[in-house]
Amino acid sequence: MTSKDYFIGLQNNNRSVIEKFYEKYEQKFKQSIRKKYSALTDDELADIYQDTVIRLWENIQRGRLTLENLTSDIGGYLYGIGMNVLSEYIRTKNTISIEELAKLEFVEEEKSEEELRFIEIREKVNNLGGRCAAILLAFYWNEWKMEEIAKELNYSNADSAKAQKNKCMNKLKESFKKNDK
């Protein structure tokens, strides 16, 4: 299924599409979050993922996200929402020990710098637009293999997708160079 198919299924409350969407992104999402925040339990990851999917669904239902303003792969949008949900969760988590609090404060400092860099990169990727944003988000944020990207974004094969990813990365690098001057 494509991002458009998932979007339409979420918009129409198609239970089967919602279940497929949920299952498709669940492991990649949790693995990606666990790499950044290894102290989270499986239950916490499950809650964060569920809250993230609900927020995505709500954004679609309320018209905040439409097919016209979906500038990247729906998985990339899901991940962006997930980072916000994760940040909120960490800020509001109040049942932690002194040791965990010390670690959390350290993580918060790092996360703060990391989050600023993430936002800057994410904005630049989104400014690239459509196909470039989708392919870069799929590869770097969602950690998809080139075969998956080729299939999802309708490239003829993994080599074509890789060539396009490289072109998009060069555009992204150029946008950073322009800011450095």
Describe this entry's structure for a reader:
This protein has 181 residues and is mainly alpha-helical. The chain has one domain (3-180). 79% of the residues lie in helices and 0% in strands. The chain has eight helices and no strands. Helix 3 (42-61) crosses helix 4 and helix 7 (146-152) crosses helix 8. The longest helix is centred in the middle third of the chain and has 31 residues, at 98-128. The chain is globular. The termini are far apart. The model is unreliable at 94-112 (pLDDT under 50).
In short:
This protein has 181 residues and is mainly α. The chain has one domain (3-180). It has helices at residues 3-11, 15-36, 42-61, 74-92, 98-128, 130-141, 146-152, 158-180.
- The amount of beta strand, in percent, is under 5%
Strand count, sense and barrel status of the largest sheet are: none
Structurally, the number of domains stands at 1
Structure classification: mainly alpha
Question: How much helix, percentage-wise, in residues?
Answer: over 70%
**Backbone CA Rg:** 17 Å
Notable characteristics:
single chain; 181 residues; mainly alpha; 8 helices
